[in-house]
């Protein structure tokens, strides 16, 4: 389980990105984190894995306060947190397989990571994950030869190769078309259910969040202004989070766009 206790972040400029954010994410729950640009969503995710240093509060994962960790203890803790990035964060010149296996770098000695030598068990697991995300035929391709959706699937497989206790996902569908976006969200949700993984997904697409997450947290100006079930995200709540908008019309436009897409193949089955 993940617990945030009064997590705060104020930058040297005096700008407050997070203000006393507190909530828990139990095992197996997928949380959609929504809010306008600048609300603090990416900062929150990066404070959890200490890519950004919190100014105050606690981040407790399986009983350990990650905010207090330094050096080797912090590196060991980060092995327990899988991260999926908006821009994929792949090494373009390496193969798909090598990128997936990089999820094990925190577990192997430095000399083995330098030579990219992994155990047969790690390699077998990587092949299994690539099959589950629909990329088994692409294991030897360079990452820069893949489409955006394929790269994101590599990112998912790499994160799962870590055997994480928590999954953090930063705008996984921002650069993808509607069909591929649904496939990616379905893959992430399926992986979390199978592994009983808690996950936080920073996502701009409210309809995707409602369709594919168990719970939605709305941020505005660094504060939690909504925390509830996707079906409780009414037009009034959306206005509180984002401001005035014709949400009914926007939903109609989004649904029309989805209906024009070809049928989606569920690649998440068995993930």
Give an overview of the whole structure:
This protein is an alpha/beta fold. It has a single domain, classed as Rossmann fold (3-Layer(aba) Sandwich), CATH 3.40.50. It has helices spanning 41-48, 71-78, 96-101, 110-115, 120-132, 148-161, 178-195, 206-212, 235-242, 247-259, and strands at 2-10, 16-25, 30-34, 56-61, 64-65, 81-84, 166-170, 199-202, 215-220, 223-228. The strands form 2 sheets. The chain has a 6-stranded mixed β-sheet with strand order 6-7-8-3-9-10, sandwiched between helices. Helix 6 runs parallel beside helix 7 (178-195). It starts with a strand and ends in a 12-residue tail after the last helix. The model has no long low-confidence stretch (mean pLDDT 87).
Count of distinct strands: 10
Percent of residues in beta strands: 15-25%
Our measurement of the CA-to-CA distance between the termini, rounded to an integer number of angstroms, reads: 21 Å
Oligomer: single chain
Radius of gyration: 19 Å
Here the CATH topology equals: Rossmann fold
- Taken together, the total number of domains comes to 1
Chain-averaged pLDDT: 87
The helix count comes to 10
Outline type: globular
**CATH-level-2 architecture:** 3-Layer(aba) Sandwich
Portion in helices: 25-40%
CATH class: Alpha Beta
- Sequence of secondary-structure elements: EEEHEEHEHHHHEHEHEEHH
SSE class: alpha/beta
